Amino acid sequence: MKRESKKVVATSKRRKRSQMQLCNLPMNILCSVISKLPTKDAIRTSILSSQWRYVWCHHTNQLTFDGFMFIRRSIKFSPSYYATAKKEECNARVDAILQQHCGEGVQRIQVKYALDNKSAGHLDRWVSFAITSKTKELTLYLSDRRIRSFTMYADGSDVFPRTKGLYNFPCHLFDANNSSYLRGLQLASVYLKPPADFDGIRNLKRLSLVDVDIADDDLESFLSHCKLLEFLEIAYCGMLTAIRATHLLNKLKHLRVGVCDLLEKVEMNCCCLTTLEYIGPMVSLAFAGTSSLTNVCIKFMAIDAALDYISKGFPSTLPNVEMLYLHCIDSKRVTLPLKTPKFVHLRHLRLELVISERQDRKTDVLDYAHLLEVAPFMERLELHMWMDCPHQPYDRRTDGELRSNTPSHQHGHLKWVYITGFFGYKDQVELAFQILRSSAVLKRMRISSQAIIIHYCAAEMIEVYRERHVVDGRMVAMDLFSGTEHADIVEVVGASEIAPKLGIVH
Predict the structure, then answer these.
(1) Which range is least confidently modeled, 43-47, 65-69, 283-287, 304-308?
(2) Which of 49, 88, 136, 223 has the fewest CB within 10 Å, making it most exposed?
(3) CB contact set of 241 (below 8 Å; sequence gap of 6+)
(4) Do 166 and 26 lie in a common domain?
(5) What is the pLDDT of residue 20?
(6) Taking the model in full, what pTM does it have?
(7) Does 180 share its domain with 266?
(8) At the top level of its lineage, which domain of life is listed (predicted)?
């Protein structure tokens, strides 16, 4: 009898367990669980049973519509027909999904596949749905390929090509009341022209415009109504000649500007900006207040002298910068002023130098020892070089003795130095020795013969650089810096004798 009673108890426990299923959860909890799923997977739950049919309609976390969502295994027709049919089918399915959705409290809506103004009717309805559902973040990424919004190529070769018939973003659908919930707006490959009576998106905190056609005055007008903006990104906007914000943006903390070919100036009225990232031609950068600007990243796609720009250009107006990242194509030697600015708050300097001089090289890498005087409290120095010059690794018999400048004072804070693209040129060797002699508390200097930056014009010469420059640079560094005097500080890394099989990082 005891055994039978135990079996009965065990059977009843199993039955209770089997009754505890996901569909038995309260609807609000079930909807919360479904909202964690990707849009496609959430919709698929509708085929489980009649009880599950409409649960996904309360998916409130994020609705994402991209090309991957609509991939189907079927017979492909001709490529052109298949592409056209696919786009029309995508639009129809998005319409159907949004019509069935409850339309309440969707946190994020993303549309990420190639659309133009021919689909304006569909897109307008989707934007209206976002407004009605009180969406906080709206993304319209209407490019037919992935755009890297802040690409780090010095030659600008990855600039996204102009697309005809861009979708005209419907600013007229937004007013002070219905747009109050929107916090983030990301637009890619659209046309943006706010009407004269546009009242703005008052509570917008993040704005990203990538490959957007917008005029200078229209951008200024749009920004004037975004007084709570904290993050602004503008990239590949080919119409812009000026980025201006005459109205105070006292909440703006992060600004990104990248690869706007016609851009001539950036003028921002913002007092709390902490991070600036800029890629493009050398332009005028003017800010009403720079006291809070601590992190600066500038990559110029034009030829200039980095030392000259540090001492006379925009960085010289930044008294509180803590991290400076500067990329420059250096082709001339400059005479430094007697009084150079002191970056007393600078702790981390990353300098990328492209030196491309096939004949009569004018630059002198040893000049960059001046950085130790410019940044007396610097703790970390990164110097990444690409030397596209006639190759001649240092040889004492032919190049003579190394120049030895006695440092005027010992740098008391520099602890970590990283040099890449060390091809063994004489002035590179002299700079490394100068830093060693001038740094009183240096813990580690890492020298690599491999390059992590590369000049696009040298692409056809990659094999030559692998076989000669990288190997020669390592041999010079090993010969000069691996002795007992520097062994505890200097670490030589990079290619070995099998370097022709290795790739240059870029």
Answers:
(1) 43-47
(2) 49
(3) 216, 262, 263, 264, 265
(4) no
(5) 46
(6) 0.80
(7) yes
(8) Eukaryota
Q: Domain for residue 493, yes or no?
A: no
Tokens of 379: 């703790």
Strands (DSSP E) contained in 97-238 are 108-112, 137-141, 167-168, 184-188, 190-191, 206-210, 231-235
CA angle (230 as vertex; 227, 231 as ends), nearest 5:
120
Q: How confident is the model at residue 469 (pLDDT cuts 50, 70, 90)?
A: confident
Q: Where are the beta strands (DSSP E) in 304-347?
A: 323-330
Using CA atoms, how far apart are residues 309 and 312, in angstroms rounded to an integer? 5
* Residue 358, amino acid: R
Domain that holds residue 126: 77-293
**Residue among 264, 67, 261 at smallest CA distance from 160:** 261
Mean pLDDT, residues 81-92 taken together: 67
> Are residues 89 and 26 part of one domain?
no
What is the sign of the dihedral through the CA atoms of 101, 104, 110 and 116? positive
Of 11, 31, 59, which residue sits at a domain end?
59
| 23 phi and psi angles, rounded to 5 deg | -70, -15
Same domain, 186 and 230: yes
Q: What percentage of the chain exceeds 70 in pLDDT?
A: 73
Q: What does the DSSP 8-state code read for residue 189?
A: S
Tokens of 19: 């009754």
Q: Count how many domains the chain has.
A: 2
